[in-house]
Amino acid sequence: MSDILLHRVLPFSKRLISETVLPGETVVDATAGNGNDTLFLAGLVGESGRVFAFDIQQAALEATANRLDKLNDRVALILDSHANVDKYVTRQIGGAMFNLGYLPYAEDLSIITKPDSTIEAIDKLLGMLKKGRIITISVYDGHEGGAKERDALLAYVKSLHQADVHVARYELLNQRKNPPFLIAIEKVREFEAVVRVEE
Q1: Has residue 109 been placed in a domain?
Q2: Distance between CA atoms of 130 and 112, rounded to whole angstroms?
Q3: pTM here?
């Protein structure tokens, strides 16, 4: 057992996903970035599983391919917006991960995730998600455009019907310099179309 109970956001996100994803399943890394989550998911699904990893930057997919090394055969690297996930994934999924913001160490840090495409992707993935499984979303809001995405995302998840999903927010309150926080969405009953509730 780890000495740390309250993990930082990224380790806690992985902990949630590792408790629900099974070997042989299909999962989605909606923001491949430098490949850390993709590699983690490829290890979870095993030789018979499949990871679909999305990014709109070729440099991100190249970095991810290099990180995967011998596990590349478990992963489909897709140069496209995660909003188009339904064009590539046609089966139920065991989980999905988002790591919002920009590509670390990229030349152009103005290329960021956007609220409209992020919410569209989550909508579609919730329809594909198996009952009892989780989507994790690591939210960074310290960069230009981050606050807009954060606010839109929070409004969206609060509108999701409680009979369909449970939504939780996890964060460490004493961290400095705009630390990320985590949104976890658990699907609690089968549905194909997301229902939103007006306040």
Answers
A1: yes
A2: 29
A3: 0.91
Please calculate the CA angle 154-174-115 and round it to the nearest 5 degrees: 20
Tell which residue, 13, 61, 7, 73, has the closest CA to residue 40.
13
92-128 pLDDT, tens digit each? 999 999 998 765 655 665 666 888 999 999 999 999 9
Q: Tell me how long the chain is.
A: 199
Place of tokens 């009953």: 189
Of all helices (H) and strands (E), which one includes residue 131?
strand 129-139
Provide the CATH number for the domain around residue 64.
3.40.50.150
Distance separating alpha carbons of residues 131 and 138, to the nearest angstrom: 21
What digits encode the pLDDT tens for the residues 50-101?
999 999 999 899 999 999 999 999 999 999 999 999 999 999 999 999 998 7
Looking at the domain assignment, is residue 196 inside a domain?
A: no
Q: Considering its fold, how many domains does the chain have in total?
A: 1
Structural domain boundaries, residue 38: 9-187
Q: What are the tens digits of pLDDT across the range 160-199?
A: 999 999 999 998 777 777 778 899 999 999 887 787 886 5
